[in-house]
Amino acid sequence: MGPQEVIKKPLLTVGDEEIPGEEFLYMLSKNRQFKTAEQKIDSADFFTNLELFINYKLKVREAVNLGLDKTEEFSREFEMFKDDLTQPFLIKNSLQEGELMKAYNRMKEVIKASHILLQFPPNASQADTISVLRMALKLKEEAEAGADFNQLAVEHSDDPSAKDNRGSLGYFTALQMVSAFEDAAYNLQIGQISDPILTDYGYHIIKLEDRMPNPGEIKVSHILVRSQGTDPVSEERALRKVSEIYTELQKPESSWEELCALYSEDPGTKNSGGSLPWISLGTVIPEFERSAFSLQEEGEISAPTRTPFGYHIIRLEERRPLSSYEEMEPMIKSRVLRDTRSTLIQSQVVAIQKSRYGFLENEPNVEVVNQIFNGNSQAEARKLIEERGLGSSALFVVSGETKTVKDFLDFLDAEQLSVKGSQKSGFTNLFDRYVSTTLQDAEVNDLMTNNEEYKLLIQEYRDGILLFSLMNEQVWQKAIEDSLGQVKFYNEHIDRYQWSERIQALIITMGKAESIPSVRRFLADKKYLPNLSSRLENTFLINNPLAFTYEEGVYEWAQHPILKKLDNGRNFHELTQDGKTHFVVFGDKVPPGPKKFEETRGKVIQEYQEFLDKSLVDRLRETYSVQINEEEKRKLYQTAVGK
Q1: Contact 173, 107 (CB under 8 A)
Q2: Domain residue spans in the chain?
Q3: Do domains 217-321 and 498-594 have the same CATH topology?
Q4: What are the respective helix, strand and coil percentages of the chain, to the nearest 5?
Q5: Of the residues 375, 432, 568, 586, which has the maximum number of CB atoms within 10 A of its CB?
Q6: What top-level class would CATH report for the domain 498-594?
Q7: Per-residue pLDDT at 497 exceeds 90
Q8: Phi then psi for 124, rounded to 5 degrees?
Q9: Cα–Cα–Cα angle for 49, 50, 52, nearest 5°?
Q10: Tens digit of pLDDT for each residue in 422-457?
Q11: Contact between 131 and 169 (Cβ < 8 Å)
């Protein structure tokens, strides 16, 4: 709990607006809590920041007075920021974070399992569902009594792959199976068989066979000799070919890349050394996976490995451990939000919100409206509701506020939604959406009322957008576009824009040491003239363009890092700086005098902006009264400075 949470009295009154002390302390306490002596600030900083805060609030007050908070541009930008700022404070975010972390912690382990799938018949009745469940329970009982689980999968599983893999799913980790299946599998002990698990596919019985730490990812290359295994002759030919390639690879002088380009039958990788993307357990076919992950040393080559595609020789290129949570979070979040976990999270959010905000549904009225919408068009339903005078009927209460049938219809209009009369679930889905939206609004309102950190953050961004709009309109953009004002400011402050004594100079930085003597001889007796650089170029750079670089111009010699070290009474100089040889040729001196407007326009605009800013603050201090609560200021001073 920060100190700002106990400070409630207004610190300032700007015009007719009271500004609480916690708002100033919030701005002052970025990256510090003032709990230790090292976190305190000195007295001068406190008062400087207080003056800046007053100026800031004056500008925000002026922006509101000018109606900048009513513009469409402000509303659009503020709502965008508000949505982004609100997300971390919502119930949904904490539940989602928990789900992401649970998935990552599971990813630290891989598990191996087999399953038996029992699907429902088309248009299954409740009796059909019960019958399938009973069959699943019977198979579980048989397996636990000693029957071979994988043979039961061959005989009974509706998973088409069970005939080939005997129900084995190999190794997998989090987010590779549907949520209910994953939860059940990860909660088993090795050798344990699950109760029937219901998913969209049917009932599953799962047997856990192994679990081990996640070996991370590997990058491999392969040479592929294709074979479908349908013709014994071609199969024998493929096996002989891959064996000969493997024998060649054992020779010290062999080149993996050359043999891959010559013999691999994977057109997508043969010309890039057979390189494949990074793989992890559960992402490739089991036969390839077993062989690839059995390789231990980088550069190690597997014996020929048979898969449904043919024969592979696999080379290990690199290993890397499971990435950190921070690196994997975007991927995990994307996958969690795409599967059934997101629906589960939303259901939990709604349940918590209903409990927290006193949700009470008027079930009879909801059913009446449901019946009206089902079987009628949207227009007909609205007409019936109007005829029966149901618009003011209560549908539910949230945070003590009653939501009526009319409110629901207004929601449909605002969201441009319609209930399809032919869809029995149409009303239910949209009513649930309305309830969810209303609960979300209640949560945000609760944050604005009771969460000080959230309130201050939203206030900061609102005021920041208004401040930017005001400053852009009256200071920054005005200074850039007001050319007459720039010139007027320049003329009134000409004393700020003066050249000190300058000198004409040519500065050469040598690039090649062998050119130094000849360039020295060329320049030694010269004085700077405008054509000296072109003569220098024509003499040396045409045939040797890297011999040196140069710059020339009129310089304030006393401020120049090289020229200030030289005697400008002599024309030619040679010096070494930062390991580089430089030649300097001086010309005429230029006495001090005013800079032309074009020569200093950038600085004029900058200082004109500062002038407009100060003028704005002076005007606002005259326009709006500023009153400071001295008692509150002393409390804040004690907190921040502690003296």
Answers
A1: yes
A2: 217-321, 359-449, 498-594
A3: yes
A4: 55, 20, 25
A5: 586
A6: alpha beta
A7: yes
A8: -65, 140
A9: 60
A10: 445 678 889 999 999 999 999 999 999 999 999 999
A11: no
